[in-house]
Amino acid sequence: MARVALSKAEKQYTIEGAAAGVRADGRSLTDFRHLTLETGVVSNSNGSARLCSTRTDILVGVKAEISECDPSHPDVGKAEFAVECASSASPEFEARGGEQLSNEIAQVLRRLCSSGDTLDLKALCIIPGQTVWTLRVDVLVLECAGGSLLDAIVVAVKAALMNTRVPEVVVSGDGVNTPFDFDVVEDPHKVRSVGGERFPVLVTMHKVGKVHLIDASAEEEACARGSVMIGVTPEGNTCLVQTSGVGGISMPSLMDMLQTAQKAGQALCSAVSALVAAERGMKNREKVGFLH
Q: Does the structure show a pLDDT above 90 at 117?
């Protein structure tokens, strides 16, 4: 994430403004920034999405491949995440500067995917103990100067998974008298969803001064002494909690953050689902993405 150098006066302005419930961009402490979200922007993928917000631009593509199952989980499919931070997104990402951040983001995505019933991986199983669908989710960070990068990436991944469709598969054989076999249906209309609607969102609460706020800008992140990253399911349940920063967070403050994040995260899940569903229902939609 791009770092912002602030003077003492700028930090004081940001902290005192947050204490008064006023932010530089006019939002309240619990408001998300305006974002634009478009799905189906990469034609040679099974699903894709592009998210643009204030100085933030993220592209996600999902490719479904047939592979062997994991012996330790023979009846579930797999989801693999790879994150790349373009060197043009921030000077910090030049050479190998973005490699550590990419690994950290991919690890968070894997934790969200494996935390509870957030993605129906069992539906990706073709032949138990043999063959499954593997979803390869590639995230490309094109710009990240706006702050709250992880939150934006998870929203883009959720939208891409909601947009993802895999072909129907016909399984033959009984595994006893005749071995199992399968055929992938080539009809482009005979596809099914992978259940991306159940994927959670991430709400990071930053503590700026004595208050906490949602969707911090880069300037607010520079003033925060601590943060709590909270995964929230569409039902408003918490599936991940991770703290960071040098400042401690009291238990009452943490509980308040969790309640705020659950309410905001559930509303965000509903908004993303409604947007993707509405976009799917549009006919002859003009796409403003790229790679077409």
A: no
The per-residue pLDDT for range 131-140, each reduced to its tens digit, is 999 999 999 9
pLDDT tens by residue, 17-36: 999 998 988 899 999 989 89
Judge whether 68 and 76 are in contact, CB under 8 Å: no
> For 224-242, what is each residue's pLDDT tens digit?
888 999 999 999 999 999 9
State the SS3 of the chain.
Answer: CCCCCCCHHHHHHHHHHHHCCCCCCCCCCCCCCCCEEEECCCCCCCEEEEEEECCEEEEEEEEEEEEECECCECCCCEEEEEEEECCCCCHHHCCCCCHHHHHHHHHHHHHHHHCCCCCCHHHHEEECCCEEEEEEEEEEEEEECCCCHHHHHHHHHHHHHHHCEEECEEEECCCCCCCCEEEECCCCCCEEECCHHHCCEEEEEEEECCEEEECCCHHHHHHCCEEEEEEECCCCCEEEEEEEECCCCCHHHHHHHHHHHHHHHHHHHHHHHHHHHHHHCCCCCCCCCCCC
**How wide is the angle at C-alpha 114 spanned by C-alphas 141 and 225, nearest 5°?**
55
Q: How far apart are the first and last CA of the chain?
A: 29
CA 50 to chain centre: 11
Q: What is the pLDDT of residue 283?
A: 59
Please tell me the distance from the alpha carbon of residue 194 to that of residue 157, in angstroms, as a whole number. Answer: 13
